[in-house]
Write a structure and sequence with these properties.
With 247 residues, the protein is mostly helical. 79% of the residues lie in helices and 0% in strands. α3 crosses α5 and α3 runs antiparallel to α8. The N and C termini lie far apart (49 Å).
């Protein structure tokens, strides 16, 4: 392949990543979720909840039992590689590999935190619990209603309150310290991440109109899709604001 062709392929890939197919109307849609999309959404929420639970449990074992090291780092890399190469039809195997990868990364993250940030790993584990429960609340709320506003507002507001209360409790012994400022920034990031999950959900529901959703891939790529979704959503909101100003 020529360099010009490679350049064109790379340009199209970047454009496809940052330019999504959904519009501002799809983003602001608060209507009832269609049945097929509703089933796919519940699968994504449930898989994401167990992945977050595995990640938090791995972090907990690292904090209490000293788990984590070269083995868990290699295990997480191997699990992710297997997820990439295994056929999407082998759903149970891919779900198991996803949980192993999440657990191994959770057990290994303490190593990097200790190296880059001088902070007690117990605080990190405490801050991982709220987003884990947040995903669980979203999944639990989606079991009883198909109204998007009920799922988003009720669950997300409660999750943000849980994040804030966790920050207050964790911050009690670190008032005025460097750890307190770090915890404050982490809680803000967690709150923004929960808002991102709402936008990510809207993209899942939009894509579900065109066929079955691969819930394992959607769970695995939730972080990797973040820049593209955020940039596309910001572009749509900016265009909408410009249109409103010229009316």
């Amino acid at each position: 392949m020529k360099f010009s062709d490679m350049k064109l392929v790379a340009k199209n890939a970047v454009r496809a990543y940052f330019v999504r197919s959904w519009s501002i109307e799809d983003l602001m849609n608060n209507g009832e979720i269609p049945q097929q999309a509703y089933k796919s959404l519940k699968k994504v929420y449930l898989t994401l909840f167990f992945a977050m639970w595995s990640f938090t449990f791995g972090s907990f074992l690292h904090w209490t039992r000293g788990a984590g090291g070269q083995f868990t780092v290699l295990c997480s890399v191997a699990s992710l590689l297997c997820l990439y190469f295994i056929s999407p039809l082998r759903v149970r195997t891919r779900v198991l590999l996803l949980m192993i990868a999440a657990f191994s990364i959770g057990a290994s993250i303490g190593i990097f935190i200790k190296y880059f940030v001088d902070i007690d790993h117990g605080l990190v584990y405490t801050l991982l619990a709220p987003p884990t429960f947040a995903i669980g609340f979203l999944w639990f709320g989606s079991m009883f209603t198909r109204e998007r506003s009920d799922i988003y507002l009720g669950c997300v507001y409660y999750c943000w309150a849980l994040c804030f209360s966790t920050f207050v409790v964790s911050n009690a012994d670190y008032v005025g310290s460097r750890a307190a400022h770090f915890l404050y920034k982490v809680c803000i990031v967690l709150a923004l991440f929960l808002g991102y999950i709402v936008v990510y959900t809207q993209e899942i529901l939009y894509d579900a109109h065109f066929g079955e959703i691969n819930f394992v891939n959607r769970t695995l790529t939730i972080v990797f899709r973040l820049p593209g979704i955020v940039v596309h959503a910001a572009r749509l909101c900016l265009i909408q604001c410009i249109i409103e100003q010229h009316r």
